[in-house]
Design a protein that fits this description.
The protein is α/β, with parallel strands linked by helices. It is built from eight helices and eight strands, in the order E-H-E-H-E-H-E-H-E-H-H-E-H-H-E-E. Strand 2, helix 2 and strand 3 form a beta-alpha-beta unit. The N and C termini lie far apart (44 Å). This is Saccharopine dehydrogenase NADP binding domain-containing protein.
Length: 194
């Protein structure tokens, strides 16, 4: 069995769900859950049990992030807001030669990631994958809509509705979600934004 370790950044609802998925994956021997609030990370690690350990880590502190990457097989970023310091965090992780994925759903940030020739060449040089935007919006939702539309003769309109029973304790989350659904959608097609 491989001796892989996943570093999950962020111990909120999405970080907890991500950590649970990694625990179920037999390819990973260890999971480290990291948050800038150590008590939050420890509480999640205790809830999930072995093989999960907690780490205090502020993603905005590049030197601490770099030190935390030793022995990591992948970084799964669930922190937010993604409009803040995402590119520098990605660069730090990729420079260390560690694959990176996130649930980034900030369109402008995703656009800057896809437009970054430096990040692209760095990832290729280090031989690591970078998978941003794995969240439900705008990631999977618009991909699914595009796939469904490609199977139809004519598509006049696509509408998205957000229905969930999640309880958000932070008004910023609702503001962010509503902003995502109120703007015209961007499409990255054949290497260009349209």
């Amino acid at each position: 069995m491989p001796d892989r370790t996943a570093l999950v950044l962020g111990c909120g609802a999405m970080g907890a769900a991500t950590a649970r998925l990694v625990i179920e994956d037999t390819r990973f021997k260890n999971v480290v859950v990291a948050d800038r609030d150590l008590q939050r990370a420890e509480a999640l690690a205790e809830t999930l049990g072995s093989p999960v350990t907690a780490l205090e880590l502020d993603c905005r502190q590049e030197d601490r992030v770099t030190r935390s990457l030793g022995g990591m097989s992948v970084v799964l970023n669930t922190t937010g807001p993604f409009s803040r310091d995402t590119l520098s965090l990605m660069r730090t992780v990729v420079e260390a030669g560690v694959p990176y994925a996130d649930i980034n759903d900030d369109v402008e940030t995703l656009q800057s990631v896809f437009d970054s020739e430096y990040l692209d060449s760095l990832a290729k040089h280090r031989g690591v994958g970078v998978l941003p935007g794995l969240g439900a919006n705008p990631g999977q939702t618009n991909v699914l809509a595009g796939h469904m539309a490609s199977r139809m003769d004519i598509v006049e309109e696509v509408r998205f509705f957000m229905v969930n029973d999640a309880i958000y304790h932070n008004e910023a989350v609702w503001r962010h979600r509503l902003a995502l659904f109120s703007k015209p959608a961007l499409l990255f097609d054949r290497g260009r934004w349209t």
